[in-house]
Amino acid sequence: MAATQTVQRMTSANVMVQPGALSRAARRALCFARRFKAAAAGLVFLISISLGAIFAPLLSPHHPTQPNIPERFKLPGGQYVLGTDDLGRDIATRILYGARNTLAAGVLSVALASLIGSVIGIAAAYRGGWLDNLLMRLMDVMLSFPAILLAILVVASLRPGMANLVIAIAFSLIPTFARLVRSVVLGLTHLEHVAASRALGAGDRHIIVRHIVPNTAPLILIQATAALAVAISTAAALNYLGLGVEPPQPDWGLMVAEGQKHVFSAAYIPLIPGVFITIAVLSVNFIGDAVRDYLDPVLKR
Amino acid sequence: MTIKRESNRILSRRAFLRVSSAASVGALLAACAPAAPTPTTAPAAPAETATPLPTQVPIATPESVAPTVVPTEAPMPAANGGTLVFAAEAIGESLEPGLWNGFGNSNILDNVYDRLTQPGEKWTDPARPALAESWEISPDGLVYTFKLRPGVKFHDGTELNADAVVRSLNRMTDPNDKSYVKGMYMNAEYGNANWEKFEKIDDMTVRLTLKQPDAAQLHRLFHPAAAIMSVKAMDEFGPQVGLNPVGAGPFKLEKFVPGQEATLVAFDDYWQGRPAIDKVIFRGYPDEAAMVAAIEAGEVNFAAYPPSAAIEQFQKNPNLKVEKGPPLVNLFLGLNRLQKPMDNIHVRRAINYAINRQNLIDGALYGLGVLPASFIGPAEFGYDPAGLEISVYDPEKARAELKASGLPEPVEITFSYENNRFWPQMAELIKADLEAVGFKVTLDKLDASAYPAKVASGETQLNMTQRSLWVPDPDNKVRLLHSSQGSAQWETGVAKSDLAARYDALLDAGRSESDPEKRKAIYKEIQDLILEDLPYVMLAYYAKPYVVARNVNVPPNAVNTERIFLRGVTIGPG
Description:
The complex is a heterodimer of chains A (about 300) and B (about 575).
Chain A (H helix, E strand, L loop, with lengths): L1 H10 L9 H15 L1 H18 L1 H4 L31 H37 L1 H15 L3 H12 L3 H28 L2 H8 L4 H37 L11 H8 L8 H28 L1 H4 L1
Helix pairs in contact in A: 2-3, 3-5, 3-12, 5-6, 5-8, 5-10, 6-8, 7-8, 8-10, 10-11, 10-12, 11-12
Chain B lengths: L1 H27 L8 H13 L2 H5 L26 E6 L14 H10 L4 E2 L9 E2 L2 E6 L5 E6 L13 H9 L24 E8 L2 E6 L6 H4 L10 H7 L13 E7 L3 E6 L12 E6 L3 H9 L5 E2 L7 H6 L3 E5 L4 E7 L9 H10 L2 H7 L5 E2 L24 H10 L6 E8 L4 H14 L2 E8 L4 H6 L5 E6 L6 H9 L17 H13 L3 H18 L2 E7 L2 E5 L2 E2 L5 E2 L2 E2 L5 E2 L3
Parallel strand pairs in B: 1-10, 1-11, 15-16, 15-17
Antiparallel strand pairs in B: 2-3, 4-5, 5-7, 6-7, 8-9, 9-10, 11-19, 12-19, 13-17, 13-18, 14-18, 20-23, 21-22
């Protein structure tokens, strides 16, 4: 929602709530969907899987973790839409409950990373000097490790678990946010309206809140959608390695790991969660591309 | 040309490993093309590995039926009757018989070394002479005098004599021995603790004096740890003899890559006659999917630890034979009473009644198992079916017992287990069963290397392990868990309880008794005590299967759960 506000401010469309606004918004959405077909499809997928995850207990008659041995290895179709796994649990139910873990881990870690990264970036750019140097060298050190390796390192040293998984992924994403925000803020502080504001006696706090944060927000948003795709796949990877949620709890990555021993005899067991991971990551990527195109004034013209 | 083809096939895996490792390094460095390493490494591989192959092919195999087949069956893989590729779960770091290095290494040891005795025709039969040609036992059962077999050669050409036997068996407990390695475990459960002395009488006679009579002593002498090795090797390699094993077994070690692979070749001067197969390659497959793929592809023709999830698939494959072993492997939960709330007998009983064992057998073992009674299995001496009434699934009783424990529900427990084979599935099923009666279970999934250490630290509450029969005598595994000196005592903590003295007394009585009927009665008493006290909860007797290629013939006494003797195995045509 914050995104649309900034978008409006940037494009100076100045849309106020007035008669016909609803239809106008709908028309805009339709227009957006027509222009970014893949993104629209991705959005539909993400929204429906999110709703499915939220209302999973209402949607599914099956239990996500309770084994049911007589019903195992049921092929997709019939009573079990996506079949059952080696312990007789309904895969569709586990996908829905698993989305809670996989998608939540992605969203939460990106939120955390963008928050911390932005604070670091703004502090570094705005204060400059030794603080800037220190923070940026620290970010360089973090960037010199591959993100997944850094995340494995953090989660392994903190102890596997959902909360630590989120922390680990966020930790690995912080440097990109910090560097991006810093470079934008550096440019902003030299703009005339910031200088004017300062000349009028505005304090740091006022400048940061009124001028800097609003102007970095769209970029953070674009970066966040890009990072979300990485975060979801990293979450799935860490869960695959057994560093995330505890076994009977479902998670897409974990479901692939648990199912892979049946890859020759019942390939659908590891395949289905794998496909969901792929679609989710692709969807986020498409949306990210669309948001970037939409917010980029040059491309827009 | 036919030979060329064959050698190419054998080489291809190594070449493949080289190429793939080179490629992965290349990919890591973001090098340009994955195709680049292929031409450079592929020609290098044959040059390096060609040396052992010519020796393998020309050697005639006197007794085997195979040689007639070699020239005719050109395109058939593994048609030369020679090479057995044995898939183990993993290959450990050392081949030291006195140390535990995993099942794969113990399978290698069983074929490189011979021992004073060997198993009978049937696994549970009395022990037969091997390197000891004959023996005399004193009437009080304390003194064993062994006559050694003359003319037995070790792989290095030296001959078997009393020095080799005495030193091989005493080095385990003698820190002054040149080849001593700290931590060799033969002491308690395998009998050394009961040994007064093991001494040389003359060049071909040795004498073992016991502290107490031991009905299983002759069996214990074919435990993998009781390997007889060459004196020359012990002197030459010292503590490194584990990397350079020199025994008198049917196969001699050609190459050992710790953690990966071992190559054994037939020993021409073996005292029972040269084995039929020329060569055995033991390879570790820690990844189940990789093992399944290797078995399906025919890359492996003997798989002793096939993933149970794939058994049905193997049964459908016309090129494979799946053999189900006898249900000799105990699977059980250890309830460590040194950790609360496992000290509470009602909690232990609740766990016992909460578990749906048939579900475990169907779900995690894919039907390869039978319902358990107590610690001694149906195919073993001392089996007591009374336990079938106690090791049962009765959730109502479980709930009542948990209530009786007086603990606030849910009762929280941590469950430690190994993250491989069927263990994770078992753990998830058990967790669901336990939570259904009022427990809250935290799963503690550990790597195969970390799990034994965690159990040995005494910090686990609930743990899950298997016990196999290394030696066909009930004392072997019962002692391991219950003796106050047993190395597995931390699974249950029983050795630190008030019952330790009672268990020790019963175990010693069982070991000393030579009359089978009386002995049976003692083991019944032990099992009654176990079922009442519940230091552990039996889950199943697992019938461990093995898978071989269609043309591999395995004689009936070759595979005894974890003990696998490849001497009589032959590879037929096709």
